[in-house]
């Protein structure tokens, strides 16, 4: 049996039946990482011994019959989640040696079920980027074609799932960083509703937009992971005291009722945008037909402020980032530059050497936009636009249950293609940003392969806290399109 090909649900079933052990499963992934991660570069840190120790512990729990959903399941974590005693770098030189004293709540939840934390995944530095090229350490490659980016910023997590280096992975999504790499790597990625999953212990990029979520092989695994990760956390004041349903019910719902009675909206502004690859358009048209075939009532809707989303996001996110990253000054946090004569010089050298160019760019844009005299013109304006975008979604969801769009305007691009041109890079986030600005949940489900052999994802968004509809429709869609092909063998 090829253990690395198992989904979380399949692996759990075999672990429960004691047909495989967690040590065997973990070894299968570790062996693949040993063999192929020098090509893909999905991981910043892999602690083989620690992973095997956790797997042995899981096997002891399973022997006692005390297993829970994730006992013995090997999971990768984006390197932005604090892990007690294990380096957490945010793919930044400034945190190169940072070893947290505590676990993020999400990490605690995996540990409480004796999951195996197989490694810390590469990312764009501080989650700023769409290609993982902004990692201070190395570029992650797309397992479908190693000349291409895996997307970002959770590119290491998505590539690790696609390359079968782990059963599932955790990412974060501030403007698309779970959905877009999932789309580019042919896996499923879900950004939960803002407040659904605790951000405690997750190094903050833009606090009003950041959400933690799953990246998995299929929608069933996404539901399982959301079940584990979600829920109110008193340690995060922005976490919502909302009830946590069993998201696997979304799958049962589909099995009982299909998608009949569900209404989906397609924003007319999305498809008239410039720069959408014809193959993405075809993929989207086919996806629409598939959903229609499943009984979904599809209608045109309007999100009138779509055109302002990129501009608003690229002010709000850098503003929040400039405040959040102020703590990395070589005094409170961060590797201090010792070659300075006074404190100002120390700050300057620490930040110039510690932060990469994109992070510096965001800090400068954010600081400028928040400075007195410019605050109203930039941050104030962008916040007003955000309110309008939220209203757009509220109104749209009066007439539909889910909103459909492509995840990205093009399939994955070549490594190096956009990195010199930040504006083009920012524009490629057009379909994913509004979801974060509005705080609603969004999922990316594999929906086709381009003629160049690269995957493309369909995005579905739903009302606040209605991830259930995304699981139901995502599962239905997945069943209808049939098994997604695996990436070519590495
Ligand atoms: N690409 C967007 C950015 O660079 C989104 C990143 C994210 O979701 N973390 O900010």
UniProtKB/TrEMBL annotation:
GO terms for molecular function: ATP binding; glutaminyl-tRNA synthase (glutamine-hydrolyzing) activity; transferase activity. Its EC number is 6.3.5.7. Keywords: ATP-binding, Ligase, Nucleotide-binding, Protein biosynthesis, Transferase. GO terms for biological process: translation. One of its GO terms (cellular component) is glutamyl-tRNA(Gln) amidotransferase complex. It catalyses: L-glutamyl-tRNA(Gln) + L-glutamine + ATP + H2O = L-glutaminyl-tRNA(Gln) + L-glutamate + ADP + phosphate + H(+). InterPro entries: Amidase (IPR000120), Amidase_CS (IPR020556), Amidase_dom (IPR023631), AS_sf (IPR036928), GatA (IPR004412). Residues 24-470 form the Amidase domain. Pfam families: Amidase (PF01425). The active site is at 78 (charge relay system), 153 (charge relay system), 177 (acyl-ester intermediate). The keyword Transferase applies. It comes from the Bacteria. Heterotrimer of A, B and C subunits. Allows the formation of correctly charged Gln-tRNA(Gln) through the transamidation of misacylated Glu-tRNA(Gln) in organisms which lack glutaminyl-tRNA synthetase. The reaction takes place in the presence of glutamine and ATP through an activated gamma-phospho-Glu-tRNA(Gln). Belongs to the amidase family. GatA subfamily. HAMAP family: GatA (MF_00120). This is Glutamyl-tRNA(Gln) amidotransferase subunit A. It comes from Desulfobacter postgatei 2ac9. The gene is gatA.
